[in-house]
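FW: tagging you since you asked about this chain on Friday. Here's the raw sequence from the shared folder, copied in full. Didn't touch anything.
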Amino acid sequence: MDDKALILLHGELKSPPLSEAARIVAGRLLRQVQEGVMLSMPYSRPMPSIGPRVHELRINDESVTWRVIYRIDPDVILVADVFAKKTQETPEQVMKNCKRRFSLYDSD
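HL: got it, structure written out here
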């Protein structure tokens, strides 16, 4: 089976803001997702409030916890956002932006 392509719809996985160690972890985890591995807690959790097949990758960094919102499609992994998680709940604006980005991708 071929690995799925990885497409960033928004955000970057580079330094700064992610530390080198966090970038390595993010890259390793996203690579596993590309290879078909279904990650679970503590690394990833489903985000049905954003949409089907949408998950939140959790990456602990030096002083912040990063979140990567991604969707698993049959042929591609779509990254909709990368942000620093500062509260227990995912910010409403992040959820709206991710829904919009996935919708725009689907309409192309």
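FW: The first strand starts at residue 5 and ends at 8.
HL: agreed, and Residues 45 and 98 are 16 Å apart (CA to CA).
FW: great, closing this out.
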